[in-house]
Design a protein that fits this description.
The complex is a heterodimer.
Chain A (H helix, E strand, L loop, with lengths): L1 H6 L17 H4 L1 H20 L10 H26 L7 H29 L8 H13 L17 H25 L4 H20 L11 E2 L12 H26 L2 H12 L1 H6 L4 H27 L1 E2 L6 H14 L4 H19 L6 E2 L4 E2 L1 H19 L6 H6 L25 H5 L1
Antiparallel strand pairs in A: 1-2, 3-4
Helix pairs in contact in A: 3-9, 4-9, 4-12, 4-13, 4-14, 5-6, 5-7, 5-12, 7-12, 9-12, 10-12, 13-14
Chain B lengths: L1 H12 L9 H7 L1 H5 L6 H11 L4 H9 L3 E4 L5 E8 L2 E6 L5 E6 L3 E3 L4 H16 L4 H13 L6 H9 L4 H18 L3 H11 L5 H10 L2 E6 L7 E5 L7 H10 L9 H10 L5 E2 L2 E2 L6 H14 L8 H9 L2 E6 L4 H51 L6 H18 L3 H26 L8 H23 L15 E3 L5 E3 H23 L1 H11 L1 H6 L4 H26 L6 H16 L4 H21 L4 H18 L15
Antiparallel strand pairs in B: 1-2, 1-5, 2-3, 3-4, 6-10, 7-10, 8-9, 11-12
Helix pairs in contact in B: 1-4, 1-8, 4-6, 5-6, 7-9, 8-9, 9-10, 9-11, 10-16, 11-16, 12-15, 13-14, 16-20, 16-23, 16-24, 16-25, 17-18, 17-23, 17-24, 18-23, 20-21, 20-23, 21-23, 24-25, 25-26
Classes of the chains: A mainly alpha, B alpha+beta.
Chain lengths: 434, 646
């Protein structure tokens, strides 16, 4: 991209003077360090204030909410990578998130039911055979949908390692197959968005059926009870999951910061801005897109596997297309094309949303009408989302650009379709590495 | 009874042959039976009454059945009586129907036929009712036979067919006669002939009669018995080994085999000091150990012995399992099977036709819902996620109009254009305020319109509440067009089909024959070039967006007429509308039509193949569409050449 070196000459351009030799990954991405430091500080603060490890200023349920929010931030980063960097507006990443939750939920539910069944069968005069235990677990779990046997998809549910493997494999394979079909037939833009939405709808409708083998619309429940830890209090469980979520978020941030930087990052952003030109330059566009799509789906699945044990219940409504659209909304409000933007958006909007819908916000008296936020929050969210799209396409993350006086990158020609995702520094990275 | 039927037939053939006696004197010859009838004795009297041919007999039998006939104890005469004053009865002559004076209660005795007698009377009455001059009574009598058919109704029914004047009732009587003959005909030939006549029917009734003739019972025997065998069941194929053995046990052809549950319970009942059958209880979590312990118990004689699997297999092997028809005559069952196959084929054709109608109706709804989306997508390249909410706006407009205009026909006539205007105005406002600023950023348009969509949905919820609101259709749209028992379609769906046709024609006219249409097509193909030619793309965008949204409003009224109006109704149709556009191809009316037909037809067919599960139908349809996009990424009707844009 020597071409870009010659044309890049904006006021914020630091030029090749600073970049004679290859610098470290952290030095090239200072935001990573800032983010990890902030996350560590936050984790420390919550640990000190939690019930299990600190003075108890934060209730167990609030620690759970914070832990869940961190998982949502993780899936938002994945969404940012696939949309803000690669330009694929996927309306299906919450489906991958939910699939991850289902996979871990199957083990949680099986193991817990097994413990309950063994306890109740222990009182019988004759010790139970393995087949009897199996049958009792089956009728216990599937009884709610009128079944008595566990379907074949529960074959691995007895084993935590196998089921953890499925957390990665199921969303990953689904994304791989779907992405391969979609990208090879050159479905792009809004067509692709609609197609991912259709996939999400099909999946949630399938799971809504009673004979899907995953308990229909009852979903999987009781996931907050971790099997094998009967004497551990929920306070400890919640702070442990909080730590795990924070660790996963930190690792996920590092992973995607690495993926979207360097040469591969340039190609990925190039696909976003002008797919045809990148293809003409000889890059296998479909391969890159498939890689990003599948990787983000796997991360979304992992985030879901951490989220649902804290939420305690998962049902097909969580997979409905609307959830994936909200995910896009978070990322858009936080700011696309910057990973910290996705984190800010997910945390800010989801916490604000639960504050408003939970009745936490005071009612607004207009004199002639009393605005109850439980009813009007969605109207406010919808309209403010439109306003953000119209007037602040960079979202909250755009404020950081204002602070550091960064504008749009200087590029010749068509800027591509996604104005909200541009950043000045994107144009500079490559020269710095030379 | 047969005698009664014969005399009845004589009576009906020669209605006025013998009117020698009057009613009272016939009754007096059977005074004892008439006053205290019993089921065995009443037959003779009924025969005589029937053969008398008197017109008042029908009325008398009805009154007799209803316990309105009284006997005067002083002279033994029969009257209709009614208690007009305390202990004083007004008497009515049973022949003339005139009042003939009064009598004190002490002189009157009510004739109380018991249940069995009343059934006999009803049987005799049917013959009269089937030929009654009043068509409603004839109909009631025919339906009474259809409800509880019995062999003795065949003759009266056949006799009444000759005199039947009403063609519809005549058909019904002939059908019923075939059914009765098929079930209870005297000999096999008559029944086979009647069964043949039934093969031309489509009704559920005829099918159930044929099924009744073909009813089977499962049996098991060492060798195949001499009976009308429907089929032989092979264990392992038509029924499982376990079922086969269970049937053997039921028929006492094999000893009962204790199940694993029985074994566990028997072991639990025989624990002695921590051991059972010589094994410690703690070892019994293994099936093999349980069998050993149980066998030990069986050897002591405390429990029945286990039946080893080989013995069970041998027992099943040495018997024949079969299904035998309840009907002994194979010729009858063969004829019934052939007739049923023929009926099923015809029903199958009927169902295909019905399915086609259903699919067409669904397709017209999808067409109305999606066409607005398709033209805005075609012209501007933006997906309007709030399109479903315009459908909702149209439906709520219809609902509000009905609150002010009570006449449903008038309110519908007002609502349709009003829904168009309001939805179009909302669409134009959306285009001016939001979408105009987001051209060339299609993904952001998608999200911004999604924001509008959730805001509008919640707004509707706040205004109209969460419960479903009715949009009542005018009475002339109630009911359904019924072709036969299989093919029928409601008038509302026909009306929606017509509405879709009208809008198809209207849109084709606007796009192909008007200046606006020309400009719309120009902007669709190349906005820049169109602008150079003096077309104002801004104005065209606004106009198309208004048109598309307005049609969505109309679709909303149409959908509201047969489904409930809720704030989520738009969201329910939006994905199908997207699918229609994606499958059909962008910016083309014919494409949308093709897409709507494909999706509507497909959804109905999948539902038909798997009727218990509409969720699965939608899942499979979406999967099909994802695969379809592989082969035609641009839809069925793709824009070609430079018009395609890229």
């Amino acid at each position: 991209m020597t071409d870009a070196t010659e044309t890049a000459s904006g006021p914020g351009y630091r030029g090749p003077a600073t970049g004679g030799e290859r610098r470290s990954f952290i030095a090239r991405n200072p935001s990573v360090l800032w983010f990890l430091a902030a996350l560590a500080l936050f984790t420390l603060g919550v640990t000190i204030l939690s019930e299990a490890t600190g003075n108890g200023a934060l209730s167990t349920s609030f620690v759970k909410t914070l832990g869940k929010t961190l998982c949502l931030c993780l899936v938002a980063i994945a969404m940012d990578a696939v949309w803000g960097y690669c330009g694929i507006l996927s309306l299906g990443h919450m489906a991958f998130f939910g699939l991850g939750g289902y996979m871990i939920g199957m083990w949680l539910m099986y193991a817990r039911t097994e413990a309950i069944v063994l306890e109740s069968l222990a009182n019988q005069p004759i010790p139970p055979t393995p087949a009897e235990v199996e049958a009792a677990i089956g009728s216990q779990i599937m009884g709610v949908v009128g079944g008595s046997e566990l379907p074949d998809i529960w074959a691995f549910a007895h084993s935590l390692p196998l089921q953890l493997l499925l957390v990665v494999l199921v969303p990953g394979l689904l994304a791989l197959v779907f992405g391969w079909l979609a990208f090879r037939s050159r479905v792009t833009g809004v067509y692709l968005s609609i197609l991912t939405q259709a996939m999400t709808l099909a999946l949630s409708l399938y799971l809504f059926q009673n004979d899907s083998g995953l308990r229909g619309n009852n979903g999987l429940s009781g996931l907050q009870n971790i099997p094998g830890l009967p004497s551990t209090s929920q306070a400890w469980i919640s702070i442990s999951f909080f730590w795990a979520s924070a660790l996963a978020l930190g690792l996920g941030y590092l992973l995607f910061a690495w993926v979207v930087s360097g040469k591969m990052g340039s190609v990925i952003r190039g696909i976003r801005d002008n797919e045809a030109r990148v293809r003409f330059l000889g890059y296998p566009v479909e391969g890159f897109k498939l890689f990003v799509f599948t990787l983000t789906a796997v991360v979304a699945g992992l985030a879901g596997a951490l989220y649902y044990p804290q939420a305690g219940i998962i049902n097909p409504a969580e997979i409905a297309p609307i959830a994936s659209i909200y995910l896009a909304v978070w990322v858009a409000i936080g700011g696309r094309g910057r990973l910290y933007g996705a984190v800010i958006g997910a945390a800010f909007v989801s916490l604000l949303s639960s504050w408003f819908t939970g009745g936490g916000a005071p009612d607004l008296n207009l004199g002639f009408y009393l605005v109850q936020w439980t009813d009007w929050w969605l109207v406010l969210l919808g309209l403010s989302f439109v306003l953000v799209t119209l007037f602040a396409p960079k979202g909250i993350g755009g404020l950081f650009d204002l602070l550091r006086r960064r504008g749009d990158p200087d590029r010749d020609g068509d800027y591509g379709p996604d104005a909200g995702a541009w950043r000045k520094e994107e144009g500079e990275e490559e020269e710095i590495t030379r | 009874m047969l005698r009664l039927l014969k005399t009845l037939s004589v009576l009906l053939l020669l209605p006025l042959a013998a009117a020698a006696q009057d009613l009272q004197s016939i009754l007096q010859t059977h005074a004892e039976e008439a006053a205290s009838p019993s089921r065995q004795s009443v037959g003779t009297m009924l025969d005589d009454l029937a053969s008398s041919g008197l017109p008042e007999v029908a009325n008398f039998l009805e009154a007799y059945q209803d316990r309105d006939v009284w006997q005067r104890t002083t002279d033994g005469l029969f009257f209709y009586a009614e208690e007009t004053e305390d202990d004083l009865y007004t008497l009515t002559d049973i022949s003339t129907g005139e009042e003939v004076g009064t009598a004190p209660a002490s002189e009157m005795e009510q004739v109380r036929p018991n249940g069995g007698v009343r059934r006999e009377i009803a049987g005799a009455l049917v013959a009269f009712q089937l030929s009654d001059p009043d068509i409603d009574r004839r109909r009631t009598a025919v339906e009474a036979i259809a409800r509880s058919p019995s062999p003795d109704q065949i003759e009266p029914l056949r006799r009444s067919i000759e005199g039947e004047a009403d063609p519809a009732l005549l058909d019904r009587k002939q059908e019923l006669a075939s059914i009765l003959l098929a079930l209870y005909g005297e000999d096999s030939e008559a029944r086979i002939e009647a069964i043949g006549a039934l093969s031309g029917e489509l009704s559920v009734e005829a099918r159930s009669v044929l099924n009744q003739i073909l009813s089977t019972e499962q049996g098991v025997a060492p060798e195949l018995p001499e009976a009308n065998i429907a089929r032989v069941l092979v264990p392992g194929r038509q029924l499982t080994e376990a079922e086969a053995y269970a049937r053997l046990v039921e028929e006492d052809l094999a000893p009962p085999a204790p199940t694993d549950d029985d074994i566990r319970n028997a072991l639990a009942a025989n624990i002695e000091g921590g051991t059972v059958g010589g094994l410690p209880v703690t070892q019994l979590d293994d099936p093999a150990a349980r069998y050993t312990a149980y066998d030990a118990l069986a050897a002591e004689g405390t429990v029945p012995p286990r039946v080893p699997p080989e013995a069970r297999a041998a027992a099943v092997e040495s018997h024949v399992f079969f299904e035998a028809y309840d009907e002994p005559d194979p010729a009858v069952t063969d004829a019934a099977r052939a007739a049923l196959d023929e009926v099923r084929t015809r029903v199958g054709f009927g169902q295909v036709a019905d399915l086609t109608l259903d699919g067409l109706s669904l397709a017209s709804i999808y067409f109305l819902a999606a066409i607005g989306l398709a033209i805005t997508f075609g012209v501007m390249g933006v997906i309007n996620m709030a399109h479903g909410e315009f459908i909702m706006i149209g439906a709520y407009t219809g609902y509000v109009v009905q609150q002010f205009v009570p006449n449903y026909t008038v309110s519908l006539i007002i609502a349709l254009p009003l829904a168009f205007v309001i939805a179009a105005a909302a669409g134009i406002a959306l285009e001016r305020l939001v979408i105009r600023h987001l051209y060339h950023r299609p993904l952001e348009t998608l999200l911004a319109t999604f924001g509008i969509s959730i805001a509008l949905q919640q707004l509707a919820k706040n205004i109209f509440g969460t419960q479903a609101r009715p949009l009542t259709s005018p009475s002339w749209l109630d009911g359904a067009w019924i072709v036969n028992d299989v093919i029928q379609i409601s008038y509302i769906r026909i009306a929606i089909f017509v509405l879709a046709l009208i809008f198809l024609g209207l849109l084709l006219y606007i796009l192909k024959r008007t200046r606006l249409g020309l400009e719309v097509r120009a902007v669709t193909q190349n906005p820049g070039m169109a602008a150079s030619m003096g077309i104002n793309p801004d104005r065209i965008n606004m106009a198309t967006f208004g048109l598309g949204s307005g049609i969505a409003g109309i679709a909303g009224v149409a959908i509201g007429l047969y489904a409930q109006v809720t704030s989520e109704m738009g969201a329910n149709y939006i994905v199908q509308s997207f699918m229609t556009v994606v499958v059909g191809g962008v910016g083309n009316v014919w494409g949308t039509l093709a897409g709507a037909s494909l999706i509507g037809g497909l959804q109905k067919s999948i539902e038909w193949l798997n009727p218990s599960n509409t969720l699965a139908a939608q899942t499979y349809m979406i999967l099909f569409i994802i695969l379809f996009i592989q082969f035609r990424p641009k839809g069925i009707v793709a824009l070609k050449g430079r018009a395609a844009g890229d």
